[in-house]
Specification:
Layout lengths: L1 E3 L5 E6 L10 E9 L7 E8 L2 E6 L8 E10 L4 E11 L17 E5 L6 E5 L2 E9 L2 H10 L3 E2 L6 E4 L15 E10 L3 E4 L4 E4 L6 E2 L3 E6 L2 E4 H4 L4
Parallel strand pairs: 1-7
Antiparallel strand pairs: 2-5, 3-4, 3-6, 4-5, 6-7, 8-9, 10-13, 11-16, 12-15, 13-17, 14-15, 17-18
Length: 232
């Protein structure tokens, strides 16, 4: 059994040996987490070096107390091998419950209407959210070479966002090229919220630049953008 605190990052290291073949034949590795109350799986990329496999597990926003994990290795010929399976126990630390005071007020800004003396109150509260944007190979290469990106979401669209960055790993199964972005979403733009996704009205979203990029997806692999362009 593997024990993980979902509130803290953890590094898992596995030893590996080959009855036949060699490490040079391996293209990638991944650790897949299956949780009983979720209809999707979390996939974490693994780093393979000689006789060991390392998986960096980020903090996880989950409620489950246990689950299952599978370590998979994919060869350069696209053959998938399940080399390890086990159960996972999530050991939570401090439990904190916060209640809102009855007299608490949300911060507001006042906007004067140029055609009227009336004032409009707009909530300034935002939530940090994550999303993968599918692109073609040329676009991703252009972002990497220029270290620049500028996008403006089309107005009037319903866009799905994650509230946990670890859920971005799921997109690598279906997206070959793209960018994983982080942005502050106004609460007034949120149409619905679920554990697996939050639906947002794109009309209230601002422009996205290279500063919003967390990861690039290249050939289905998630890569740290800031590390690739040597930004500390």
């Amino acid at each position: 059994m593997i024990k993980i605190s979902p509130n803290k990052a953890k590094t898992l290291t596995f030893g590996i040996s080959f009855d036949s073949g060699s490490p040079s034949e391996i293209q990638e590795g991944r650790l897949i987490l299956s949780l009983p109350n979720l209809d999707y799986k979390l996939m974490l990329n693994a780093i393979i070096e000689n006789d060991s496999i390392t998986v960096n597990v980020p903090p996880l926003d989950i409620c489950e107390s246990s689950g299952n994990c599978t370590l998979e290795i994919v060869s350069k010929t696209k053959e998938c091998y399940q080399v390890f399976t086990d159960t996972i126990k999530f050991e939570k630390g401090i439990s904190i419950k916060v209640t809102e005071q009855k007299d608490s007020r949300k911060p507001v800004v006042e906007i004067k209407d140029s055609t009227s003396k009336s004032k409009k109150k707009v909530s300034t509260e935002t939530k940090t959210m994550y999303r993968t944007i599918k692109l073609d190979r040329k676009s991703v290469q252009g972002i990497l070479e220029s270290k620049k990106m500028l996008m403006k979401p089309d107005a009037g669209k319903k866009m799905a966002f994650y509230q946990d960055s670890s859920q971005l790993f799921n997109d690598t199964e279906n997206i070959e090229y793209g960018v994983c972005i982080v942005t502050n979403v106004p609460e007034s733009a949120i149409l619905s919220e679920k554990i697996d996704k939050t639906i947002v009205d794109s009309s209230q979203l601002g422009k996205l630049t290279e500063k919003n990029i967390m990861y690039l997806i290249q050939e289905g692999n998630l890569k740290d953008f800031r590390e690739m362009i040597n930004v500390s």
